Amino acid sequence: MPNYRDSEPVSLEPQTETLHGRLLNVSRMATIGEMAAGVAHELNQPLTAIANYAHACERLLGRTDMDPADIREAVHQIAIQTKRAADIIRRLRTLARNQPTERSPFNLNVLVQELYELLHTDALLHGTRLILDLAPHLPSVMVDPGQIQQVVFNFVRNGLEALGAAGRADPIIGIRTSPHGDGEVELAVTDNGPGLAPDAMKRLFDPFFSTKTNRTGLGLAISSTIARAHDGSVGYRPAEPNGACFYLRLPVSFGG
Question: Whole-angstrom Cα distance, residue 238 to residue 217?
């Protein structure tokens, strides 16, 4: 019979890190799945433009008075739209890629701007205006860019779902960056929905807690885990004059 008292303690740290990585990837893929309609719409625009310019080339080549300059312009536009489609796919692959954490100094404004087209398209499909309010000269933060962008996605998706359930006449999502306190920067995502009930505020970042049906309740919990791993924090406060505000605070990278 084995002597359990003499057994070496088993470290759970590697298993915990593996589980954390898997949860991050599941959350990331779930977000992309939820945004499938927006992604398809955004890809459809350059693909439609490419098809139209290709048809134009075909028509121009069939004309006796064809101007080579018109052909060159159409081909140039095809190249531009092809690059646009490739950039969309690249952003999605970057978001979906499951890779080890690699931190570098980044400006939060840059990370938000990289996401803007995807977020803007998703907001439009939900009948919502997306407004950016990015502070100039924002200090850099030492982050894994994909993970921080995942937090932004989670916050925006949370706001879009709240606004959809509320049926606001003019739904708005705002993304704001600003210096905060001593040595921190803040990224806040606000909406003009109904806000949250006091009892829900206490459990917002608990795993598997959700105020919506058919939801995993992992998005905000994963966001909190990412923030803590970056020596930062997430939180909630009511938006003014009404609505919800979810924020991420990260320490400034003084060496970056």
Answer: 20
pTM of the model: 0.63
Q: How far apart are CA 191 and CA 118, in angstroms?
A: 18
Q: Is pLDDT above 80 for 48?
A: yes
Percent above pLDDT 90 for the chain: 23
Instruction: Identify whether the C-beta of residue 236 lies closer than 8 Å to the C-beta of residue 246.
Output: yes
Q: Cα(183)–Cα(137) distance, rounded to whole angstroms?
A: 14
Tokens of 26: 């599941």
Tell me: the pLDDT tens digits for 61-83? 888 888 888 888 889 888 888 88
> Six-digit token pair at 140?
């850099």
Q: Is 132 exposed, middle or buried (0-12, 13-18, 19+ CB in 10 A)?
A: middle
Residue 9, CA atoms < 13 Å, CB-side half-sphere = 3
pLDDT digits (tens, 9 = 90+) for 88-121: 777 666 655 555 557 889 999 999 998 888 888 8
Name residue 29's amino acid: M
Three-state DSSP class for 174? strand
Q: What does the buried/exposed string (b/e) look like for 154-185 if buried means 16 or more CB atoms within 10 Å of the residue's CB?
A: bbbbbbbbbbeeeebeebbbbbbbeeeeeebb
**Cα–Cα–Cα angle for 197, 198, 201, rounded to 5 degrees:** 90
Q: Decide yes or no: CATH 3.40.50.300 for domain 104-251.
A: no
